[in-house]
Every structure is written in C-alpha cells, then in structure tokens.
Amino acid sequence: MTTLLLTRPLPQSERFAAMVGETLPDLPVVISPILRIVPADTPELRDGEDVILTSANALGVIDPNLLTGRTAYCVGDRTAEAAKAAGMHAVSADGDADALVRLLQSIPVAEPLVHLRGRHSRGDVAGSLVRAGLDVREIVVYDQQPASLTPEARVLLNKTAPVILPLFSARSAALLSEAACDSRAALAVIAISKVAASAWNGPIPARLVVAARPKAEAILDEIGKICAEWSG
Length: 232
Fold this sequence. Notes:
Number of helices: 8
Largest sheet: 6 strands, mixed
Structural class: alpha/beta
Shape: elongated
Number of domains: 2
CATH topology of the largest domain: Rossmann fold
Distance between the termini: 12 Å
Strand order of the largest sheet: 3-8-7-4-5-6
Strand content: 15-25%
Helix content: 25-40%
Number of strands: 11
CATH architecture of the largest domain: 3-Layer(aba) Sandwich
CATH class of the largest domain: Alpha Beta
C-alpha cells in the first residue's frame, strides 16, 4: 500500500494532512518533521518599516505586537493569511521568491522594507531588491534545525512498499536526502519547485515530479495523480 510521508514542521504537516484527508481519505499518512523552527535574533523593527515574508515561520517567532498594523509583502496566500491573523495588512505574490521580487518591483511600496527570513534561505530577495533601487535590509529571525526521523518513518522507508515524499523546501530536501540515504522504498518525490528538486540527493526515486505551481494545492494534485497511477 502507498503511504504519504510528510516531513514539514509539525503545524504545516498537520494542516497539509487535513487537506489530504479531504480529497484522498484512504491514503495513509505518516508525519515526521525533518526540521524544527527555532527562534534566532529578535528583530528591532523601525517605525514605518514594512515587512517582506517568504515564509509564515517568521511570524511564529516574533512578538505580534511588533508587527500589528504593518504591511506584509508575502510570498504566497497562506503566508498572507498568517500575516492577516497577526494583525498585518497583507499583500500576496501568489508564487515563489522570484514572484515576490517581481511584485515589489512593479508596485508602489513605502520604504524602508525589512525581509524577515530563516537562516537557510534560497534566493537573494533583499539583495535583488536593493540592486533594483529599493531600501531593503534583512534579519534572520529563525533557524531551520535538523530533526531525526521518527521510528515509524524509518520503518516505512526501510520497507519496499511505495512512499510519496513531498519536498516543500530545498532545506528539507537536503536533510531528507541524507536521512533517507538507505531507503528501500519505491519513492515518488514531489518537489514544490525546481530548486527543491535539485536539492534532492537521496536514493534515485521511482518518480520525481515538480509541482506545476509552488503551492500546496499543486503538490496535492500531483499526489492524487500518483495515487491513481500506482493503484491502477
């Protein structure tokens, strides 16, 4: 039987598992976070400084009182929803980091801006915007530290039954490649982006797919296709 292995931080994995349950209720799901989000620096935000967010993880490690009332330019809709819940005015690029850079270059924005990001980040968002003439700085507010796979996940990977493995970031792809290096399972790796796919250096998968869009819904679509194919 095919099993879905989710390795995002626990809140995101649980949210995605709920989405899977609504559309693929018979698909077994195992959750085993491969990284944990740990606060890093406490940002000192300046008056009038709006925020760039490439992940909602930044919101979970910052005092909401520092953010309320500011505008957040967000990589996607889920990050924008989290920013609104934190009392911010949210604008979504509905895409990836490149889409966010393009958005900020194409609309009038109040400067200065600050990119609140993780220690491990792909794409030089702040640098790209500075080169385009915007007043932007960046602060590392959280770290994505490695976590060990659970015993259940290790047993799953050591069997030969198919496992669907979504990759939501390059960081998790790199960590999971190492953790799954001895896997015997037939893996279907679904990457949220070409960058995440290129970071996979684990066992050669039976299938390697890049989602049509860098969104959880697009990964869910690919999971449905693989389930239909492998059960046929």
